[in-house]
Design brief:
The protein has about 775 residues and is mainly beta. The protein has 4 helices and 50 strands. The protein folds into 3 domains: about 100 residues, Immunoglobulins (Immunoglobulin-like, Sandwich), CATH 2.60.40; about 110 residues, Beta Complex (Ferric Hydroxamate Uptake Protein, Chain A, domain 1); about 550 residues, TonB-dependent receptor, beta-barrel domain (Maltoporin, Chain A, Beta Barrel). About 5% of the residues lie in helices and about 55% in strands. The strands form 11 sheets. The protein has a 22-stranded antiparallel β-barrel.
Length: about 775
């Protein structure tokens, strides 16, 4: 059935749940930072009087509470800010716009942005982690570069993609099964310098939320997780500048009012300068090399009137790697979001977005024998309409989304007649994803909360193009020719979502969730780490949408006036239409790449334990995951389940932060994890004097375990008027452990008849120092 059939049903269900009553009025408004005018996401509004109730501001700082007529005490609070308490007589719909002042208490450093102190216990939402951007200043990272993606890898249920890699795995999912969005735009490649740094410049980021499970219905399109990153809006009070100078990169951010209290802008720029050092080398083969990345974040907003605010934001980033006269490799992302917030009335809030994102890469070999240029492109146009409706104990969300995909696989051109590489032009692929959703967050009473909804996802593969069908051996059975704009293959999936929490008291609760997700854009790669040349494909007549169902159960407990958090979650996930590759599959520059694919099922299950101390001189967290991730394909391992590449039995992370005084902060992080599952050769033979390895069981071997200790110290400079500065000193891999990056099998130089395993490690001890400033 069509979306037109389902949409009226969803809206009918939505509004039929709303309860109307006389003598009820709505308290609504926007909560902001008094020093910058930034809206505060997740600020708490609590009222007490004839009835007690509480809510949080949404992603745009807006809230609404409906209560019976009466006089109430209203408290507005946010971590790190001075609470505001007022007495309000609610005898009509009332506005409450508040600006909170920062405490500027440097001794209080939090590791999570949950602002209602027991929100982790009360909320029906499961599997949600919010990262406090202030904590990134102290957590040690590679070369002192604050990194959102490296920080989330320290959380239970989230596993690193490997040493020096920003790729990550969540609850058994593959790296391409994470939806990463920046101001609502999809970021297809979130790494710089082949994964050593992420695309997210922490100076420009306002809020980071990671959903590991129980995803609300407004999110979809990936199986495993959602990483929702939001940029700073900019200071609408006064002009501000901040930045930092490190060993390999520098940053600069400027923000200020367009019209004071009505509009603001923010621009942030970051660039590495390793290539500047290379130019100073006396070696002519090195001084012509290129090794850098840059990214630019920009955002502006303007309050048209009390009911309308417009936002425009963009991200522009690019990597350049090259060796003189040998090769060039560059890739980058461009995203643009135009958004309108509109308040229809005190209860109904909407957000309308037009979104563009583009990911492309170019590889060029420059020698005469293999001279060629390979290019690829992924481009989306996206329209979103989201609504929030506040009604008594309910917060309804509903909306629609339409995304047009264009994927240009690798095209190869040559500029030399002597090149041994043949030109190749592959057909572009087009797809349309359409979604409608509805959800309700229902506070039944003081103990019971529900978050439930449904998402209807439709995908259509569009022409023009030639679409082939293959037999089991990969031979073409038939090819269909489809004209421009014609619908060739359609899929429709219903994705139910459900979460609940039951409070034993204000400090203890149990939660349960179930959610289904589908995915229609997939990455094909047989590399062990993310690469800019990973190939993107859409669901087709051969590739069906991936489907994952996940159930989870958790216990949550707070101690010592919410200063300590304890949680334990168990989950089970089963997956359909998973993708793997035939032995010796050729993925790059293959017009019939779908003939190289295998399709099967998967399962993942595990236990996540989390302990966190939020306040005081010493704070931090301990996260541990015990898990299993498996795949099953009829053509592999005799049709039995086998470990997926990202399967790791044990994963441990420990983060500690010590605030010695108002100037010195010390921190450390320790990680340990089981090595990835890999396929090792079972034997070898000689053909034409060359060694050829043969393989039997897929992923039957293990890489060595990973272990690393990082240390950091931050010294706050003395404040001189508006000027503030700090020094950050770090040591990456303080134990100097040679963690495995890759293992290659070679003939033993001493005994050629034997095989030797040669391990490559990237980093030993790496010190860093960064000077940060703001004024």
């Amino acid at each position: 059935m069509s979306i037109k059939f389902y949409l009226p049903i969803f809206l009918l269900l939505l509004f039929s749940s709303s309860v109307s009553a006389q003598n009820k009025f709505t308290l609504s408004g926007t909560i902001r930072d008094a020093s910058s005018g930034e809206t505060l996401i997740g600020a708490t509004i609590k009222i007490s009087g004839p009835a007690n109730a509480a809510t949080l501001t949404n992603n745009y700082g807006y809230f609404a509470l409906t209560q019976t007529e009466g006089t109430y005490t209203v408290t507005v609070s946010y971590t790190g800010f001075i609470p505001v308490t007022k007495s309000i007589t609610l005898n009509k719909d009332t506005k409450l716009n508040e600006e909170l002042k920062s405490t500027n208490d440097l001794a209080e450093v939090t590791v999570n942005a949950n602002n209602r102190k027991n929100e982790n216990v009360k909320s029906a939402q499961m599997g949600l982690e919010r990262i406090d951007m202030k904590s990134l200043n102290t957590i040690p990272v590679l070369l002192g570069e604050k990194d959102v993606l490296k920080t989330i890898q320290l959380l239970p249920g989230v596993k690193s993609g490997g040493e020096g890699n920003t790729g990550f795995y969540v609850r058994g999912g593959a790296a391409d099964q994470n939806l990463i969005i920046l101001d609502e735009a999809v970021v297809y490649n979130s790494s710089h310098l082949l994964g050593f740094f992420s695309t997210f410049n922490a100076d420009a980021i306002k809020d980071v939320s990671l959903y590991k499970g129980g995803m609300p219905a407004q999110y979809g399109g990936r199986l495993s997780s959602v990483l929702d990153v939001k940029m700073d809006d900019g200071n609408n009070k006064e002009f501000r500048f901040q930045g930092g100078i490190g060993l390999i990169a520098s940053r600069l951010k400027a923000e200020g009012p367009i019209v004071k209290d009505k509009g603001s802008f923010m621009v942030s720029f970051r660039r590495t300068y390793i290539d500047l050092f290379l130019r100073a080398s006396p070696d002519s083969s090195i001084n012509g090399s290129t090794l850098n990345f840059y990214d630019i974040n920009a955002k502006a907003n303007y309050k048209i009137n009390d009911k309308n605010t417009i936002y425009i934001s963009g991200y522009f980033g690019k990597d350049n790697i090259g060796v003189k006269d040998l090769f060039e490799n560059n890739w980058g992302n461009v995203t643009t979001t135009i958004r309108l917030n509109h308040i229809f009335n005190d209860r109904l809030f909407s957000n309308t977005s037009l979104i563009y994102n583009n990911y492309n890469y170019t590889v060029r070999l420059l020698n005469d024998v293999t001279n060629f240029k390979a290019t690829s492109l992924v481009r989306d146009f996206n329209f979103k309409e989201d609504f929030q409706y506040f009604s008594n104990q309910h917060t309804f969300r509903f909306g629609l989304n339409a995304t047009h995909h264009r994927i240009s696989p690798i095209d190869i051109t040559t500029s030399s007649q002597e090149s041994q590489v043949n030109p190749l032009v592959q057909e572009k692929r087009y797809g349309l994803e359409s979604v409608v959703y509805v959800s309700d967050e229902w506070a039944v009473n003081d103990k019971l909360n529900f978050l439930y909804g449904v998402r209807l996802a439709a995908f259509s593969l569009l022409g023009p193009g030639n679409f082939s069908q293959y037999d089991k051996e990969g031979n073409i059975n038939q090819t269909d020719q489809v004209g421009s704009g014609k619908f060739y293959k359609n899929y429709l999936n219903l994705e139910p979502r459900f979460s609940m929490s039951y409070l034993f008291n204000e400090r203890n609760s149990v939660k349960a969730s179930y959610n289904r997700n589908t995915q229609n854009i997939h990455i094909l790669t047989n590399a062990t780490s993310s690469s800019p040349t990973d190939q993107y494909v859409l669901s087709s007549n051969n590739i069906k949408p991936e489907i994952a169902d996940q159930v989870a159960l958790g216990y949550f407990k707070n101690l010592d006036e919410n200063n300590y958090e304890l949680s334990g979650e168990v989950y089970y996930k089963w997956m359909q239409n998973q993708i793997d590759y035939k032995n010796a599959a050729q993925l790059l520059a293959n017009s019939n790449v779908e003939s190289e694919l295998l399709y099967g099922t998967g399962r993942a299950y595990g236990l996540e334990l989390f302990f966190k101390k939020k306040f005081g001189k010493i704070n931090g967290w301990i996260g541990y995951t015990l898990s299993k991730t498996e795949r099953k394909f009829a053509e592999l391992n005799n049709g039995n389940y086998f470990p997926a590449r990202q399967d790791r039995t044990h994963d441990l992370s420990v983060v500690g932060i010590y605030n010695m005084n108002q100037r010195w902060t010390f921190s450390s992080s320790f990680i340990y994890s089981t090595g990835n599952a890999v396929t090792f050769p079972a034997g070898k033979y000689i053909v034409g004097g060359q060694t050829v390895y043969y393989y039997t069981e897929r992923n039957a071997g293990r890489m060595p375990y990973n272990m690393r200790l990082d240390l950091s110290a931050t010294l706050e400079g003395k404040r001189r008027g508006r000027f503030q500065s700090s020094w950050n000193f770090g040591v990456y891999n303080a134990l100097n452990r040679k963690n495995p990056y890759s293992i290659e099998f070679i003939n033993d130089p001493n005994e050629p008849g034997k095989t030797a395993a040669e391990q490559t490690s990237l980093f030993g001890i790496i010190p860093s120092v960064t000077w940060n400033f703001k004024f």
